[in-house]
Amino acid sequence: MSLDWFTVAAQLINFLILVWLLRKYLYRPVLKAVDEREKKIAAQVNAAAATEKAAQAEKADYAEKQADLARRADGLMQQAKTDAEAAHDRLIAEARQSVERQRAQWQSALVTEQEHAATELTREVQVAVVGVARKFLGDLAGADLEARMTSVFLQRLKAVGEEQRERLAAATAGASEITIRSSFPPDEAGKASIRDAVAGLIGRADLRVGFETDKAMVCGMGLYVPGYKLEWSVAGYLDQLNNKISGDGQAAPVKIEPNGTS
To answer: Is 181 exposed, middle or buried (CB count within 10 Å of its CB: 0-12, 13-18, 19+)?
Structure first.
C-alpha cells in the first residue's frame, strides 16, 4: 500500500492548524485562567498567612498585656495590702498614744485634784489652828503680858546688828517722826523706855516717836519709818507656824524690811 503524501501533508497541516487554534483560543486562556487562579489562591493564602500572623501577634500582644495587667494587679493588691497594714499599724499606734495621753491627763488631773484637795484641807486646818491661836493669845492679853511684850521688844531693839542700825539710820535721815505700832497701848514708863531705845538705836534724840494701836498684831510691837519697818509680834510666830504647815518656808518673828508706808 502506498502512502498518499498529499493526504498526510494535509492532515499534518490540519493538525498543526488545530494545535495552533487550540493553543491560541483554548490552551492559553485556560493557562491564563489557571495562572490567575493560582495567583489569586496564592494571594489569598498570603493574605490568610498575614492575617494569621497578625492574629498571632495580636494574640501574643494581648497575652503580654494580660500578663502585665495581672502583674500590675498583683502589685496593686500587694501595695494596697502593705498600705492597709501600715495604716492599721499607724491607727493602732495613734490610738495607743491617744489612750496614753488621755491616761496621763487623767492621772495628772487626779494628782492635781488630790493635791488641791490636800492643799485646801491643809489651808483650812492651818487657818483654823492659827485663828484659834490668835484668839487664844488675844484673850490672854493683859497688863502683865503687855508689859512682857514691851520688855521683849526693847530687847529686840538692843539686839539689832550694826548693818541694820545703819540702814535704819539712813531711812530716818530725812524723817522727823517714827511710829511705834502695837497691839496694846504701852504705859508711860514703857513709852519712855521705847523712846530711849529708839534714840540709842538710830543715834538721834530729836525724832518724835508716835504710838499707835493695832489689835491685828496679836501681842506684838513694831517700829515703822518710811522705807523700813522693824517688827516683832506673836503673829510672827503664828506666821512661821503657818508657813511651816504650808511648806513655804519660815517667817521670822522679828523683821526688818522695806516698807512703803510709815
So the answer is: buried
Contact call for residues 168 and 201 (beta carbons, < 8 A): yes
How far is the first Cα of the chain from the last one, in angstroms, to the nearest whole number?
189
Residue 236 or 204, more confident: 204
pLDDT for 89-127, tens place per residue?
A: 888 888 888 888 888 888 888 788 877 777 777 666 656
Q: How many CA atoms lie within 13 A of 72 on its CB side?
A: 6
Describe the strand order of the beta sheet including 220-225 as a list of residue ranges.
208-213, 177-182, 220-225, 227-233, 254-259
Strand stretches in the chain, DSSP E: 177-182, 208-213, 220-225, 227-233, 254-259
247: left (phi over 0), alpha (psi -120 to 50) or beta: left
Residue 210 near residue 194 (C-beta atoms within 8 A): no
Which residue ranges make up each domain of the chain?
Answer: 142-259
pLDDT of residue 235: 63
